[in-house]
Amino acid sequence: MKAYLKILLVCIFVGCSSIRASAQTGVTLYGIIDTGVEFISHAGPTGEKLFRMPSTTGSLPSRWGLRGSEDLGGGYKATFVLESGFSPNAGALAQGGRLFGRQAWIGIESPYGTLSVGRQYTTTYIAVLENDIMGPAIYGIASLDAYIANARVDNSVAYRFNYHGLTALATYSFGRDSAGTGNSPGQGTCAGQVPGAFTQCRDWSAMLKYDQDSFGAVVSYEEERGGVNAAVNFFDGVAPTPLTTSNGIDARFYVDAYVKFLGATVSGGWLNRRVEVVNSSSPVVTSDMFFLGARYLVTPAVVIDGEVFRIINAQHDTRATLATIRGTYLLSKRSAVYVQGAYLFNSAKAAYAVSAGGPGASPAPGVGQAAVMVGIRQLF
User: Fold this and answer.
1) Whose CA is closest to 126, among 77, 190, 169?
2) How far is CA 281 from CA 261, 276, 278, in A?
3) Three-state secondary-structure class, residue 176
4) What's the pLDDT at 282?
5) In the chain, which residues have pLDDT < 50?
6) pLDDT by residue (tens digit) across 322-379?
7) pLDDT of 65
8) pLDDT tens, 119-164?
9) Cα-flanking dihedrals φ and ψ of residue 227, to 5°?
10) Of all residues in the chain, what percent are helix, strand and coil, respectively (each to 5)?
């Protein structure tokens, strides 16, 4: 009887699994491979020329992923995303070697919004990705603030709600870097979830966005708390500052708006960053970045876009202006070739880098940089 009972239980389990699998609406494999060849002037402390294949990004960061959902009925769906970043020049994993370093979350979608848990983007990344002209391109906002292209957190809960062009999104992380590999260059690590230290390494963000056919706007705020081994980096050549207590705060406030007319899109905004370091000779450091960009569809296959960025850090006495332009030829709906170039003007004490394509390209303080990249992009 016990043997027959075991067989019956197995059959019931397998049968239920089969029924559940048949309700699966689908799993999609997707990705981007984007790379090319780059030239940078005045690279490194000696100001040499640099030719390389970028390891981090081109017009877009390379990645592959799995996206799936299951219809649960009544307007509810179970959803998930597993997304892995990689470097096409060497085939290496990005995000500190994590298998699914870009995203790894599961959630429930309903008529009342989507609730998800896992490793997810913060609102800083989403606001820039969906509104800024250049987005996470190699010569763009991430050249002046590398965190923007790495704004994602571990141990997070997120809620998104969409209604007639209005999007509200909020995220909360109990510990933003549990793997200890760092979420952004120079930011150290901050595992969090420490007993008795509830706010250590905490991250929360919120976004409100409105989109219509001809115009839109977004407002986003993100606040990181410090913790053991955490640091802050302004990417201007000044050494990172430890942010080792939970009272330390690294916050970003982002505003952007765009309009579309006659085949063109014009977008502009402001990013304010405020760092509060406890027990420091410079307890508060702020930076302000202003930007204005435009995109024009010359023909259905030719796109021209460009943007100008200006960043000011009064406490560090560092300033920079970045001007970038890109031309893209669409070979098909999924394949494209492009040429993009930029020039970065540094103030006397600033050492911002023109390229977000990988380490080793920062100039000496006060030195400007030019960069050009020719690349190819394939979406699948």
Assistant:
1) 169
2) 49, 11, 9
3) coil
4) 65
5) 1-22
6) 999 999 999 999 999 999 999 999 999 999 999 999 888 999 999 999 999 999 999 9
7) 98
8) 999 999 999 988 999 999 999 999 999 999 999 999 999 999 999 9
9) -175, 180
10) 10, 55, 35
CB count within 10 Å of CB 118 equals 19
Q: Is 229 left (phi over 0), alpha (psi -120 to 50) or beta?
A: left
Within the chain, what is the greatest distance between any pair of CA atoms? 85
Which residue in 170, 227, 178, 229 sits closest to 199, CA to CA?
227
Given its phi and psi angles, is residue 96 left (phi above 0), alpha (psi -120 to 50 degrees) or beta? Answer: left
Cα three-residue angle 189-192-196, rounded to 5 degrees:
145
The Cα-based distances of 85 to 265, 271, 306, 359 in angstroms read 29, 26, 26, 17
R_g of the chain computed on alpha carbons: 22
DSSP codes of every residue in 92-126: EE-GGG-TT-SEEEEEEEETTEEEEEEEEE-HHHH
Supply 276's token pair. 């509060």
Alpha-helix residue ranges (DSSP H) falling in the chain: 2-22, 123-131, 141-144
Q: Residue 191's pLDDT is what?
A: 83
Is residue 285 packed enough to be buried (19+ CB in 10 Å), middle (13-18) or exposed (0-12)?
buried
What single-letter amino acid sits at 200? Q
Task: Give the dihedral sign, CA 233/237/239/241.
Answer: negative
pLDDT of residue 102: 96
Tokens linked to 155: 């141990």
CA 217, 150, 52, 93 torsion-angle sign: negative
Backbone phi, then psi, for 351, in 5-degree steps? -135, 45
In the prediction, which pLDDT does 281 show?
64
| Eight-class DSSP state of 2 | H
Block residue for tokens 């420091």: 280
Tokens in use for 313? 């850090």
Q: What does the block give as tokens for 4? A: 């027959």
Domain 36-64+106-379 indexed as CATH 2.40.160.10? yes
Which of 330, 378, 380 is CA-nearest to residue 34? 378
- Alpha-carbon torsion 138, 144, 146, 148, what sign? negative
Three-state DSSP class for residue 367: coil
Given a contact cutoff of 8 angstroms between Cβ atoms, the answer to whether 97 and 87 are in contact is no
Residue 16's pLDDT is what? 37
